[in-house]
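Problem statement: downstream parser choked on a complex file, so we are re-checking the raw output for the nicotinamide-adenine-dinucleotide run. The parser issue turned out to be on our end (a line-ending mismatch), but while we're here, posting the original submission so the record is complete.
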Amino acid sequence: MSASTHPQESLRDHHALVTGAGSGIGLATARELASRGARITIHDIDRGSAERSAKQLEELFGVDTCAVVGDVCKEREVSHAFARSAKVLGPITILVNNAGIMPPKVDVAHRIPVADFDRMLAVHLRGAFLASREVITNMRRRHFGRIVNVSSVLGLVGLPFRVAYQVAKTGILGLTRTLALENARYGITVNAIAPGYIFTEALRARADKGLISYDLYADRTPVGRWGTPEEVARVVRFLAAPESSFITGAIYAVDGGYTVRGDPGEDIGKREEGYSARAGAKRGARGRGHATAPPTQMRIRKR
Ligand SMILES: NC(=O)c1ccc[n+]([C@@H]2O[C@H](COP(=O)([O-])OP(=O)(O)OC[C@H]3O[C@@H](n4cnc5c(N)ncnc54)[C@H](O)[C@@H]3O)[C@@H](O)[C@H]2O)c1
């Protein structure tokens, strides 16, 4: 636990299991929870990154950790991993359903291979369902539990060409609401976060190779930049805290304003300066035609 931690924010008595915690948002979340003194299980499909991350947290924060490996959509592997985690570190009191994959193909729904669709739903939705099933009985028995599901802004708004991801992330919100209601009388809260564009190592590598444009997504985000994994992790930690006992079934957008921006075609000013009403009016008068431009061709001008 860091020296500056307020005693009320301590997670010393807790054991948090984070799925997909070998990298990215999951690892940042595990780090954030470990910084508050929680025992941490790193669950990931990739053995190397799971073991490396667990070791890193142990060294950084002096907390007990456990690395478990498995595919979050395979029932047996999940059961086995969770049983091992509880045996090593005690009952799981905090579960973060974070494991996820990017769409292998970005295309219109009718051209997406069925296998891609099934896999996307399995990793995100079936995975969160299976993991939650593993912990709820015991959480009910102890009359305490925190489950945080990682959805996406794409669970809240539409964006073409990512049908399976969108359906999976929307489904996670449904799962969150149902589990919240079913378990509200048992001291268990179930909430979801909906991150916007978050600059993880994996996405940095893609940007470095020119596969994605940092600027394009920064411009689509009202605060004018991508978020960091740590900014997401802090919201998860807030929802996972024992003090957040009256928040359940909620969805927290962690998106720099992405989902409240009604019209992504409207120029809202230079990123560095924020909204400029005059510039917006001038551009509007010139008529940018954004209402008819198909989303893929919509380009926000370089400034
Ligand atoms: N990065 C973003 O911009 C962003 C935005 C919104 C939502 N999200 C969501 O946040 C979560 C984390 O994403 P990230 O960007 O950190 O990705 P990431 O690729 O950096 O990390 C995902 C981790 O999940 C693991 N994983 C993948 N499939 C798994 C499986 N079947 N079983 C167990 N582990 C598995 C990977 O090995 C990896 O360590 C995902 O659910 C993602 O959809 C990310």
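For whoever reads this later: Residues 19-20, 22-26, 44-46, 49, 71-73, 98-101, 123, 150, 152, 195, 197-198, 200, 202-203 surround nicotinamide-adenine-dinucleotide (CB under 6 Å).
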